[in-house]
Amino acid sequence: MFKVYGDVNSGNCYKVKLLLSQLKLPFEWIEIDILKKETRTPEFLTINPNGRIPVLEWETGHFLWESNAIMHFLSEGTEFLPCDRLQRAQVLQWLFFEQYSHEPYIATSRYLIRYLKGEEKYQKVLAEKRPLGYAALGVMEKHLKEHPFFVGDVYSIADIGLYAYTHVAAEGGFDLSQYTAILAWFERIQSQLNYLKIG
């Protein structure tokens, strides 16, 4: 039995929850309120000294943090992680892209607006993030015009990793109406077995 420490509205936590659901693995969800600084308590810092969610715990008393590392661990030996060496590296390529070129602009914009209610207060910051967020969406759109999914033309954790914050990008002020390949990709993901919504 796994335990997941997370926030149900967090895209990073949603990645883990969605994958566990699609793997049909039982888990206990432990809700952590980041606005109440519950990730900064001495107790929480013993399981993740970096003070962030999600964190995965399993029966042996081991803890693993960083959403994409958790997904990689859980998907080992499953259809969600390719066996082919190059394709495995391509999964990592897209997950690194998500963390360095996508999440800092799309996810953080959503955080400022949805969590902090700061659309006016952080107007300048949001304006600076928007072009780089759209640049990341452009990279995704170009790829998805030629491929149904991100690696090997099959659904994998690369898709889960990118879907988590992209499908709620409008909550961060991003207009996806012109990204027809991304919107079609949303439908393919939402048709996967054991799909569940964020929240």
Can you describe what's shown?
This protein is of the alpha+beta class. The protein folds into two domains: 2-75, Glutaredoxin (3-Layer(aba) Sandwich); 85-190, Glutathione S-transferase Yfyf (Class Pi), Chain A, domain 2. The protein contains seven helices and four strands; from the N terminus they run E-H-E-H-E-E-H-H-H-H-H. It has a four-stranded mixed beta sheet with strand order 2-1-3-4, with helices on one face. A hairpin with a 3-residue loop joins strand 3 and strand 4. The radius of gyration is 17 Å and the shape is globular.
Write the layout of secondary structure elements.
Layout: E1 2-6, H1 11-23, E2 27-31, H2 42-47, E3 55-58, E4 62-65, H3 67-75, H4 85-115, H5 123-144, H6 157-166, H7 180-190
Helix pairs in contact: 1-3, 1-6, 4-5, 4-6, 5-7
Radius of gyration: 17 Å
Q: What summary fits the major beta sheet?
A: 4 strands, mixed
The percent range for strand residues is 5-15%
Assign the CATH topology of the largest domain: Glutathione S-transferase Yfyf (Class Pi), Chain A, domain 2
How many domains? 2
Q: Helix segment count?
A: 7
Helix content estimate: 40-55%
Structural class: alpha+beta
Mean pLDDT: 97
The strand count comes to 4
